[in-house]
Each structure stands twice: as structure tokens, then as C-alpha cells.
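Sample intake — High mobility group protein 20A
Collected from: Acipenser oxyrinchus oxyrinchus
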Amino acid sequence: MENLMLNSSLPPIFAEEEVLKQRNNAGSGSNGSESNSQAPGHPEPMEENSQAPPQPTESSSGNTESKVQRNGEEQKPRRPSWPKGRKRKKPIKDSNAPKAPLTGYVRFMNERREQLRAEWPDAPFPEITRMLGNEWTKLPPEEKQHYLEDAERDKERYMRELQQYQKTEAYKHFNRKVQEKQKGKQHRPADVRQAASESLHEKDTEGKERSVFDIPIFTEEFLNHSKAREGELRQLRKTNMEFEERNAALQKHVESMRGAVERLEGDVMQERSRNTLLQQHLETLRQALTASFSNLPLPGSGETPTLDTIDSYMNKLHSIILANPQEHENLINTVRDVISRLER
């Protein structure tokens, strides 16, 4: 069989097929099949289809072309994309502009954040934010309305202040500054912009490579230091909350004291007005008594009253009448007549 392969003039592919066929004929002869009638060394001629070399089909050629095309596309240099970690430039901030209004949800978060931190000191910031969002979702509408009304009032305040601010010189100056910056960007040369973008792209690429390879190792000392700092921060937050509660209590006490002082000041003003009225009435009474008793001298001294001496005159007259009323009956009757005229 090996000699047949060596002496055959067929190509190597056909020679191998002929050897396989001779092996099959030999096996069938041992089993007593009809193929024993053929002599060895004269193999059957192979069919034309088996002798023809395989021809490439259209689908295989199409796949080959598509592979070549894809390889060609992969070999093309890709266009450099904008780095994902690139930060955009922040717009110019106007420091003189009025403070932007807060929404109702932000007001609720500012009010409840410190309380949740006190209740859950070990909870991270995202967890506290999630808890605040759940509370806001479950909050009754009547309680939400309080924050929404405050936000609406703050928005109205912002619109009023903004309208007033837009009439000032500071707003006009800021507007001119923004327009000048935009004009400068428009007139900037294209090659300068391209060079700047390429340099920024290189810096971002270097920063990314550094961030990938410069990974700090958290040692045990650093972790212990971080834990100690976290404990100090929790203690400081707790102390801060206690001081805030004390300040709130003191603020309420101060407000109550201010209310008491205001009430006392009102009482003092009322008493002063009453004293003024009584003083005026006393002056009027002194004038009336002086005019009525000007013709009635005191027994023994003959003293008559004036505006300056009316008080001592009345005290002496009263003492004389009480000392001996029977002797001064005429004086008593005269005093009664004068007093009756005053009452009229």
C-alpha cells in the first residue's frame, strides 16, 4: 500500500483517498462481500465531484470580504473622544445677586438632617439622604403644605429682590462682564482653541493614568486615626446639639422676659399718666382753696393762705378745729360753706 502511494502520479490529496478506499475494499473481502471480484491494484475510478478541489462559495467570499473590511476599519485611528472625567467650566457667579429660593423639600431636609444625624450618628450621608426622601414621601399633605408655603413666599421674595437688583448698576456691570467674556470666546483663534483642548486632553489622560496607578494603601494607623476622628466628630455633633438645645431654651426664656418687661413698661406708662392727672387735679384744688379761704384768717395768728402756703394753712386750720370745736363753731360753719361751694 505504501508502494502504491509512492508510485502513484495522483496528487497527495487523491492518494490519501485511494489508500482509504483500498482499506475499505480489503475489509469487505474478508467479510465475503461482492467487492472481492475486483482485483487489487485496480481501484475504482473516483467520481468527478470527489476529484474536483473545493471551490469557495459566495457566502465564504462575502464573509472574507466583511472580515477584511472590519479589519480595515479597526486599523483606522479612532477619533479622540472627550474625557469622561473632564469638568466643565462653571459659569460666572454674581456675588451681588439675591439669594436663590429654597424648595419645600430642601427646607424639610435642612430642618430634619441634624435630627437624623443625632438619632443615627453612624449612618453615612447617602443613607441619611435616603431616609429624608422616604420621610418626605410619607409626610402628610397638611404638613407638606407648611414647607411649600414657605418656599412660595421665599420665591416671591426672590422675584421681588431680583427685579430690584436688575435695576441697579451692579447688575449692569455684571451683564457687561459676561458679554465681554462671550465675545472673547467667539474671537478666539481656532488653532489656539485646538492647542488648549489638546493640552487639556493630555492633562486629563495623565491624571487618569496617575489615578489608576497611584492608589494609596490604607494602613492600620490611618484606619485607627480615621476612627478616632469619626468618634471626635460624633462627640462634637452631640455637644453641638446640646448647646443648640440650651440656646433654644435660653432664647425662649429671653423672649418671655422681654414680654414681661414690655408689660411692666406699659403699667409704668399708665401710672405716670394717672399721676399727671392727679397732679393737675391737686393744683386745681389748691387754687380753688386759696381763692376760697383768702378772706378767712386763722384765729390767733391771722394768717391767710397763698398758693405756696395753702398746704400748711389747711393743716393748721384742721388742728384748730379739732382742738376746740365748741369754741370755733362759727369757723366750722364758714369752712362748711366754702367746701359746699367747691363741690358745686
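Post-analysis note: Residues 1-15, 26-75, 209-215 have pLDDT under 50 and may be disordered.
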